[in-house]
Every structure is written in C-alpha cells, then in structure tokens.
Amino acid sequence: MPESARARAAGAAEANAKFRAELGVMVHFEVAQAQIRPDGRDALDRKVAILTANPAVRLRITGACDERGSDLYDVALGERRAAAVKRYLVEKGIAVARLDEASVGEQSPVDAGSGETAWARNRRAEFVIVSGDMPLAMK
User: Fold this and answer.
1) N or C: which terminus of the chain has fewer CB atoms within 10 Å of its end residue's CB?
2) pTM for the whole thing?
C-alpha cells in the first residue's frame, strides 16, 4: 500500500474513533431535573452534526439517576431524561426512528461513591451506537 493511502487510512480510522467517542459523550442533569443544561446542548449539537453526516447510525439513549430517589421515581426520571434528549435531537432534524430510549434509574452508576461529586456523575443520559457505526465520516 502506498504511503499516501496508508496515511489516508490512518486519518480515516482516527476520525472514526473521534466521532464514535463524541457520540458516546454523556449529558448530565441537575438534581431531580430532566431539562438539558447548556453544556448538554453543546454536546448534543456535536452529536447532531455526526448523525446528520451518517444517516445509517442509530443510537440508544439511556437515562440514569443518582441513588437518592426511590426506585420507581428514579426509573421515571431516567425515562424523562432520555425522552428530553431524544426530543432535542429530533427537533434538530434527527429521525425519531434512529433513536431508542431506555431508563436504568439508579441501577447502573458510573460512580459508586456517595456524595455530590458521585451523584452529579450519575445524573446522566448515556449513548450507545446500535447500528450503522462503521465507518463514520463528516461531510
């Protein structure tokens, strides 16, 4: 393989890894809230650009909570968080059929600690590529 082709392939692989990582960036929420914060809108806008350029990509959005609410409350809040993120992406032009949503309530913490730092990390929406992830590109 010629050097220029190797360099292009390496650049494409690097870009693909960057886009996959960006699609996986979590969005965080305030206590007992499902409104998207300004930093969350910025992260979602970056996802919109990638999703627009890659129409075969489907995402699962999972809402999660910290440990302080009841199980029932946290599952419902996680659902509202996932729905808020999905609604934002749809309003930005992403087809609803490309987005699945779920809630784990407080059952899958990213930080097992107790205290505001851990709780803040656990109040989130996560993103998983369900299909159409190779190779990702920008137009």
Assistant:
1) C
2) 0.92
